[in-house]
Automatic annotation (TrEMBL):
Residues 123-213 form the PPIase FKBP-type domain. InterPro entries: FKBP20-2-like, PPIase_dom_sf, PPIase_FKBP_dom. SUPFAM superfamilies: FKBP-like. One of its GO terms (molecular function) is peptidyl-prolyl cis-trans isomerase activity. Keywords: Isomerase, Rotamase. It holds the Pfam family FKBP_C. This is peptidylprolyl isomerase. It is an enzyme of class 5 (isomerase). It catalyses: [protein]-peptidylproline (omega=180) = [protein]-peptidylproline (omega=0). Its EC number is 5.2.1.8.
Length: 229
């Protein structure tokens, strides 16, 4: 498209996502109410049918939206090269530098630093720092601020950020590696009070994998637990 060609001239790659329904494939609110809410809240992403009609963004409008996003990101003190999320109707266009990689699952990532050693496996414990952002670049959560890294075992659905996209993104990292993950709504956590994202939207995580530990079950009398070293 004209918009894509214009973006490539600036060394950017455009990735299109059409948001679908909820995890059961059903709309949770009426289409008219959803559209009104979307127009009133540009940074909110709601579940829509994948068959919704789409239209091409005018290059001038796209540049204007990019400029608006940059101003919002600067106000939120977003990190350098933070991705842009352009919303037009039912579409979300993700704009990233060319060095980002997109997987078939929809996960987008960039290796800031490649670590050394072996990648973690199911049953092993990974120790890592992360900073989570919403689409506008506002920091949502940070283990650095909390003062201690996160520790979780892979494969038992205990991931702290609570989503499949995060676990997929950390699985092939190596200790010492740093990676930025852009997680689409379908790979993110369910919306609710237990998560720090209040709506269906893309999530951005900067992850630093510190170490990987082996784990084994320990049983003493009637007590049993898992020890990782």
């Amino acid at each position: 498209t004209t918009a894509s060609a214009a973006a490539r001239r600036h060394g950017k790659r455009l990735l299109w996502y059409v948001l679908g329904g909820d995890r059961n494939g059903k709309l949770k609110i009426g289409k008219r109410a959803a559209l009104a809410l979307l127009l009133a809240t540009p940074t909110l992403s709601l579940p829509f049918s994948a068959h919704a009609k789409t239209k091409t963004i005018n290059p001038y409008d796209e540049r204007r939206l990019l400029q608006q996003n940059k101003k919002i990101q600067e106000a939120n003190r977003a990190p350098d090269d933070f991705p842009n999320f352009i919303r037009e109707g039912f579409q979300v266009k993700v704009v990233t530098p060319d060095n980002y990689i997109t997987r078939d699952s929809g996960l987008i990532y960039e290796d800031v630093k490649v670590g050394t050693g072996d990648c973690p496996k199911d049953g092993q414990q990974v120790i890592f720092h992360y900073v989570g952002y919403n689409e506008s670049g506002r920091r949502i959560d940070s283990t650095y601020i909390q003062g201690s890294p996160a520790k979780i075992r892979l494969g038992n659905k205990s991931l702290v950020p609570g989503n499949a996209g995060f676990e997929e993104g950390i699985r092939d990292m190596k200790p010492g590696g740093k990676r930025r993950l852009i997680i689409p709504p379908e790979l993110g956590p369910p919306v609710g009070p237990s998560t720090f994202f209040s709506a269906k939207q893309f999530e951005v995580f900067d992850v630093e994998l510190l170490s990987v530990q082996d784990c084994q079950r320990r049983t003493i009398a009637f007590y049993s637990d898992v020890v990782c070293t």
